[in-house]
């Protein structure tokens, strides 16, 4: 095992650990770990709600999920010699659920969950169609996931960190806060909100204390959105073997990470989201000095995915265009066209006996691919969603005999908002 | 060779052929070909501009491209017994450039083109960055494409029809025209336009004549957007071996197709677009009676991609979020985040010596993948674009020695608007 | 279409064509076609028995197959500037059945065959188990093969030339004849024979005539075995997009080819063998001057397979060791261990309802993989054979409910020796 | 972590552990672990020489390797209800090096080795060309291996157990001993030997003691060869996610396993062999009652490989035929043709600067594929070996500029016999 530089004890809360991470982005959060270019090390990661979501058949915990508390991140980790303008190379050597613990109350101990927030509590990609809170528990066995709430489906995990990134500079943080507030101001009462402003409540800022803490928690950025520093990109292909290149904005780079997923479909459309878990990640870091200008990388991450992602050679795909269900024409709206493609996939899967929310959960958790197929054919964007047929234990392709009928079982727990 | 039911002579204009196709969608265009479920047949397809784009080193033809004339489609082909509510199974048995003709003045005769329209003439995905008209010629040798305008890159074609679909019913056509006009009305003077209303000029409606022709050409839908009938979906994975399921809206289904692409990246971001060519397509058709309700397919196409697409196991990926270059925050705008990911890829490739327009052309023509990676992390959508590293004849990955420098050669022809 | 340098008329016998190929290897066979490095050209190829095998439900033609007449090859093609010691680069740009002819009496006109010779007429890999003559007809539709003689299986063709090679020098030819006769002399009466000596009967030697013909036909090598020049390697991965490097032994290289296969499993275990057909092959040639010593290639072919082979992600595999069915232990005999692995696969498939010969035919024709898994664990070699599960229209994996039962239909035509 | 049913302490010898495994096959070795169908459990495995091979730059340990002591196996594990005639389903849920220990003196603690035995001590596949003892140390980082002894190559591990199998019955054991002794008797003095008879010296037989031990150690079968019970099959594709079906010959099945490999090429041609290591394996077991006759599986293993093996899309392949280097023609000898293919690959790699033994070591350790390409074209078998080009950090393909030259570094340690 590589040296563990950021340990987490599964029996303690995130704020009671030996090293305390953070759940906001701020340049003043001190690095608690120092590594050198070339180092290999392990980082423990807590599931994003710090254990608030449990392994049962109720969605009440999702309905009341403490949104102000997320995402609990491990770090910051300072890399010796890193300076603004460099590219930080991060090799994901390994990533997985909590090692040696395959049962227990914490997501990552042999199980994980996919949730859908109620519309009044954050919503999701298809919140108008699924306005309540829902939860599905997935059991891990070896590298595969199955669920008592969604029978007849099993898939190999495409394990990855949903969130990883470097610390923003003060300038960058100001930029974020400015532009996001401007968006919020266009419709401040919207449900769900357009964006999340700094939220002092429940802020965790590592070892920061006193006045520094008070000041920082009022300006620290929320971790939900991906931004110039990487962050919550939720890219399902950040798997074992991947090499990622992050821009560096502060001395030491100050890398943090968390929000591990056992599996996820492109888009993480269920929002709460993927198959959430805690676990570990083994990293190797290095630097390309001055790499941001050398390679023209001013922001966001560049990456080379690993080569051991699960292989599926047969897919069934669904397409959608940027027209609403009410027949309103939108202009090249790829977000909408992906929603329509996903809704088509859901309609299709329900003809096999699944409930709509079961189908939605499959799209959120399984390694589906979401593609921007046509983005220029005015006025209609065309998006497509690809399902691997091999994850179902029945023949999911259309045929002349009509769909096989599967028993949906106990179904998906729901909690009405 | 399967029986050729829709022949095209490469030496004649589209309107001088034995059978005359169409370039608008309208239910009254008579089927000119009749096939039965189970039949296998060949259809010739003309490149979408009917030969207006030539194999030279000027972009003048793109600048003056006759947009009212597109897309010239082969069909309609009526399938015996097809009725509204059925699913039409279409197997793409083979598809390729014009057989036995590998040199000549017509795209598809051993070559094809990728164009970018001037902003004043339709624009493209990145039109604010590339406002002029540009053209790249690609030469085909075996299954691979190379270009004198974009050196050091070669890729295996992922050949597919950009456009295929069934005829709309009168009701469906009215629905299209209504919603698209409503969108246009929100900003009628926009350049480029929000959508394209019916355009009687240059309309070709098969064998339709007289009053019927006059009436129909004023209401027939343009072929640019994909819609409920499939249409111009530009899905790069509609390759040989694919099985597609189309909803049927009129008796006979009245299938039409065209806009063949030798290769295309997800999004067809260059608009004019992919590697355009004429050629042939071999099809097998069958029916699932009543399949639309049986399988919950009310619109758009479902498909199972073929299993011989070119394999690349190493990719370099770029991400983008829904923030404009001017730092304006947009709300979950996946269109914008894909633009930003593509711009990042362009910035990156230029550090190797390519001009920006060369890099743009690679993204439009090569089999890149565009993914909707995160669509819920308010306010930022995250999109990613994946380039196969194996298409370059140099090492395109970042490293400590900095980028290899390639000679961009003569570059991309441009015509200023 | 590339320029066709070696045409064949499907209505004429191989010896009645405009250019006459050959069915023996000899350095004196004159090149009939001359190309230059960099050239792209098309070659027609006749199926290896020149039409002696027909599309019917009898195996009589296989029983009486004229073995002295094979393989009818197209060529030789001289490459300008090629000299002994060079490496000849051959790019397989495209390869397929006879274009524009998808029905007719000649294999390659929309159909092909797999045969097993009677033990008294050449036998096959499992001739002790299948001592008679058998034949299966496969129909091509698009890129896929199905057979009335082997139902419930369909696979994408992995089209390739079974035989391609450069001409031997006189020295090399002598070497071949010497060593092969020495082997024959160890058991001259063996049935089937250990090797095939030069056979003047039925020899075709291109344009060679008179005394030259008489002398050459008595010393020209048979085409069955692969040798230093490439030759009948039967490598299923010589598919479209492959680049092959052949050693050059005579001025001009004198490349010849034939024995096209629509599909084949590793080993071509049925001998007659793969799915045999005539068709076309498009080639590009180039030279690496002095490449044999530069790259240490003294013999046989090096190649880089194409990247569009059919993808199957799920396989069921069978293993065998080098022990005979009579429990005799052989020493690291990989030939035997592969036989045992194949017999295990046959035993397995028969539990689903196939006859043993149907199962054998699947292994010969479908894109199975044969691996040398262990070659050092004395005394037992271990070989494995991998079947893609996706070629069957039923679930071919073992399970608790026992095997699905398929209707074997009319079965495989047989002719008793 | 699944329950560990067979623990090994890295600080103790194999015979000093809490549970003592075995290094011979015998039906009387008592099961030390009992599991039920459906159980998931972990087994520790020791590297096959129990630590005799060390991490240094000398091959003396390989020269003097204690061959009588191998393979140290974990087990037997009895599965409740298993009876002769059943099929034992074994799912390989996970497999890897020793967890939490990535440095130390034991192979599997962050490193592994590939050896070649001296000809006088067992030899290897190419022992006539490499008659001495050689050793290469590989370092593991994440899922990849590199070596100070073979620079410029790095590959993703295709981790698997080289050896797993069920216990033989008394009848089956007698059958083995009889046929192997008969082979030995044909040339008893051969170096290396044709097979290995029972060897009482160094035998470890689990908890067996007293007279039972004395009797059993004189008749227990050596573990080197694969046999009807699976055993030392060295199949590189027994990776995570694989499902294997073993025949059951004794009550409880009595499954044992060991000889873990971090990576291996088809054939394990270096014999000592693959990248050897100790580690862990997580298994799930189940039964198909009576499955041997239901599925026609009388012996050897059937398996479905996992779907996360490393993906490489570009390969360079070498072919060989069954002619010796002295030009002696052998009859369809696939063992010889694979040797010739491997020698061709070695000749090729040496033109880039590698020493021959470095090239041999690459073929033994990297995930190369060995194929039985042609097994019927008398008298020449054709075998092929495929190298993934992506494992080299230089362009390994042939070109007009000649091979890149790599620095072979310190090279491979050798110990002369």
Automatic annotation (TrEMBL), chains A, B, C, D:
Signal peptide, first to last residue: none
UniProt xrefs under PANTHER family: FORMAMIDASE C869.04-RELATED (PTHR31891)
Protein name, entry field: Formamidase
NCBIfam families: FormamaseFmdA
Domain of life of the organism encoding this protein: Bacteria
Lineage, highest ranks first: Bacteria, Bacillati, Actinomycetota, Actinomycetes, Pseudonocardiales
InterPro entries linked to this entry: FmdA_AmdA, FormamaseFmdA
Gene Ontology MF annotations: hydrolase activity, acting on carbon-nitrogen (but not peptide) bonds, in linear amides
């Amino acid at each position: 095992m590589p040296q563990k530089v950021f340990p987490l004890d599964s029996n303690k809360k995130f704020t009671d650990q030996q090293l305390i991470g953070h759940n906001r982005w701020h340049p003043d959060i001190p690095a608690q770990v120092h590594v050198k270019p070339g180092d290999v090390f392990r980082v423990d990661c807590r599931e994003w709600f710090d254990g608030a979501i449990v392994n049962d058949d109720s969605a009440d915990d999702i309905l009341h999920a403490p949104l102000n508390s997320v995402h609990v991140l491990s770090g910051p980790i300072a890399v010796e010699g890193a300076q603004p303008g460099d590219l930080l190379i991060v090799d994901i050597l390994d990533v997985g659920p909590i090692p040696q613990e395959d049962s227990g109350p914490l997501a990552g101990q042999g199980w994980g969950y996919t949730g859908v927030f109620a519309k009044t509590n954050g919503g999701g990609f298809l919140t108008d169609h699924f306005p309540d809170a829902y939860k599905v528990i997935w059991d891990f066995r070896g590298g595969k996931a199955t669920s008592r709430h969604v029978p007849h489906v099993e898939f190999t995990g495409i394990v990855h960190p949903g969130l990883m990134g470097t610390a923003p500079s003060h300038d960058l943080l100001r930029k974020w806060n400015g532009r996001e507030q401007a968006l919020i101001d266009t419709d401040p009462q919207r449900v769900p909100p357009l964006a999340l402003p700094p939220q002092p409540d429940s802020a965790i800022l590592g070892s920061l204390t006193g006045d520094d803490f008070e000041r920082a928690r009022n300006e620290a950025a929320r971790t939900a959105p991906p931004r110039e520093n990487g962050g919550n990109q939720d890219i399902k292909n950040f798997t074992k073997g991947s090499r990622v290149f992050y821009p560096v904005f502060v001395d030491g780079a100050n890398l943090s990470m968390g929000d591990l997923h056992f599996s996820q479909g492109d888009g993480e459309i269920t929002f709460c989201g993927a198959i959430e878990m805690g676990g570990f990640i083994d990293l190797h870091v290095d630097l390309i000095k001055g790499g941001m200008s050398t390679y023209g990388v001013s922001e966001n991450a560049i990456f080379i995915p690993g080569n051991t992602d699960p292989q599926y050679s047969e897919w069934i795909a669904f397409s959608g265009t940027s027209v609403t269900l009410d027949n309103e024409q939108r202009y090249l709206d790829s977000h909408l066209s992906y929603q329509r493609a996903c809704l088509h996939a859901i309609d299709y899967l329900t003809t096999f006996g699944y409930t709509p929310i079961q189908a939605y959960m499959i799209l959120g958790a399984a390694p589906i691919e979401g593609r921007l197929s046509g983005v220029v054919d005015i006025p209609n964007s065309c998006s497509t969603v690809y399902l691997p047929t091999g994850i179902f234990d029945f023949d999911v392709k259309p045929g002349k005999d009509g769909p096989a009928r599967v028993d949906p079982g106990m179904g998906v727990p729901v909690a009405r908002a």
